[in-house]
Specification:
The protein has 266 residues and is mainly α. It contains twelve helices and no strands. The protein is 76% helix and 0% strand.
């Protein structure tokens, strides 16, 4: 465990050194993040001025997006391109026999990128939004800690779904579609692009039987205090149930994928 943690820190430190070598990356990242914040704020401001957004406020909506984006940088895994590239190049065969599991390397590399994204995206957006837009704090200290727990569970759900979708590259031999398809699923059913409270009832009913909303939307509802009491417990229980189901499915597909890799490799 201690050796794994040292390796984890070394990989993240290496990514930070590589990133800061090119200082234009930092400037470009900050400017892009601020531009997207301004565009999103202008869009939602225009919508609220029409009077069509009911049941919420501009501050609540902007808080939803900004806090959710900060969470997603660390928890919204994106392993598809790495897995697909490793399969196509043949490097996967060597990586899965290394001392540390292949999934450990996937998580570590993802977190290494999350460190740089935090400084070039999350921090600038949070500071500017806090000063000029106004962000809502958690409804209570207790709700904040439950939100953290729920967000971690949501990150596991996100990662499992991403892995399951990414494993399709073993059978389809292409991987360009993986990130697009995963993003589309969470955009439509998970509330990453539009909070589900804006959805019509028929689409909300579909979302309620799928796991996607429990990755980001569920934790954010806890943070904003839109659910309380037994409803909070229901979200946590549903997250745990989906983790068990998705983990079982991920393990089955991964075992099948390794068998296919062995057969193809002779």
């Amino acid at each position: 465990m201690q050796h794994a943690f040292r390796l984890y820190c070394k990989i993240i430190a290496k990514e930070i050194r590589r990133f800061v070598t090119y200082r234009t990356n930092i400037v470009a990242g900050v400017l892009a993040a601020l531009f997207m914040l301004a565009a999103r704020y202008a869009l939602w401001l225009a919508l609220f001025e029409t009077g069509n957004a009911v049941g919420t406020s501009l501050s609540e909506t902007m808080t939803y997006f900004i806090v959710a984006d900060m969470v997603m940088i660390w928890l919204a895994a994106s392993y598809g391109n790495t897995i697909g590239s490793d399969i196509k190049s043949g490097e996967l065969a060597q990586k899965i026999i290394r001392p540390f599991s292949y999934h450990f390397h996937l998580v570590t590399e993802f977190h290494a990128g999350a460190v740089t994204s935090t400084f070039t995206r999350s921090v600038p957006i949070f500071v500017v939004a806090l000063i000029f837009i106004g962000l809502l704090p958690p409804v209570s200290v207790g709700a904040f800690f439950v939100f953290i727990l729920s967000a971690l569970l949501g990150g596991v759900i996100f990662s499992l779904i991403d892995l399951i979708v990414s494993y399709s590259a073993f059978w389809l031999t292409e991987y360009w579609y993986i990130s697009w398809f995963r993003r589309a699923l969470f955009t439509i059913f998970g509330g990453t692009m539009l909070p589900l409270w804006f959805y019509p009832n028929w689409l909300l009913a579909i979302c309620n039987v799928l796991p996607f909303q429990y990755a980001i939307f569920g934790p954010m509802e806890i943070y904003l205090g839109r659910v309380y009491g037994g409803a909070v417990g229901t979200i946590l229980v549903m997250q745990l149930l989906w983790i068990v189901l998705l983990f079982g499915l991920e393990r089955v597909i991964w075992l099948r994928a390794q068998y296919k890799l062995v057969v193809q490799g002779g």
